[in-house]
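Exercise 4. Each item below gives a protein and its sequence. For each, produce the structure-token representation.

Item: Membrane dipeptidase (Paenibacillus thalictri).
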Amino acid sequence: MPVKIFDAHCDVLCKLLLDPGLDFAHECSLLDVTLPKMLESGIGTQNFAIYLPEDLAGQFDLVLKSIELFHERILSNGQLRFIRTKDDLRLAAENKQIGALLSLEGVDALQGNMTYLRTLFYLGVRSVGITWNHANWAADGVMEPRKSGFTAKGLHLIRECNRLGLILDVSHLAEKGFWELHELSAKPYIASHSNAYTVRPHPRNLRDDQIAAIIRTGGVIGITFVPPFVHATEPVAMEKLLPHIDHICSLGGRRHLGLGSDFDGIKEWIVGLEHAGNYQRFVELLQKHYSEDDVEHLVYKNWNHFYTNHLPENE
Ligand SMILES: [Zn+2]
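Answer:
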């Protein structure tokens, strides 16, 4: 029996948006995440991010198009169940279906309009990454040279997400904005796909005080498989993920760690972890280093507990 997997970030929706010819339901070598690969590797829950490339980032109609594709190309397969509530999460597990969460990566397309935000919540989006790498109307991303924090409208967005029950995601957010969000947010927040800066100093990774803050407030950090965020020189072996895990655990994160692969958002891969069909290889490696209980928490239960606690009760 494969160990159940919960992955908090993939970008397959973006690939489907840009190339409608790609097939999620059948084996497709151009996609890291496909239904056959997910079934092969025992995925229990997958978070699907709505991400628009920078030249299209402001177009709300393409966010809606991504949701249309999510329904028509992904959920249309009976093996998946859309996760909007605590009940959905439970029912997916009971019926041995793959749970499918929907998230937004970068709020550019909302154009500061809270009606757009609320509409996405009503359509089932359950977490919101504030930025991609650069600045938008709400805040600066980690690659924006001025490294500023939130705008007034961006601060309003945090409050509105809190009020609705939309989970805030700090991956990609510049450090100043991170601390502003930490101060303002009344709810735990997540880093869906980021590693430890102390292990691999890269702007996309989290400093120790950020990791400690996420842990203290009850959030979860998704270890990501993006080779340059894992190790300085490529090719990157799977073993290089272990120091990130050990480091976050040393800061008290044993029950605040999960996976956030970034599959289909990457153009280079960790050796042996080239697509979503390979998770059990990683599980085997983890089992050599950690207890069975810790492995299960790391690859599934920590995210599952978090979402069980923070998804809406019902529609
Ligand atoms: Zn990303």
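Check: The two ends are 33 Å apart (CA to CA).
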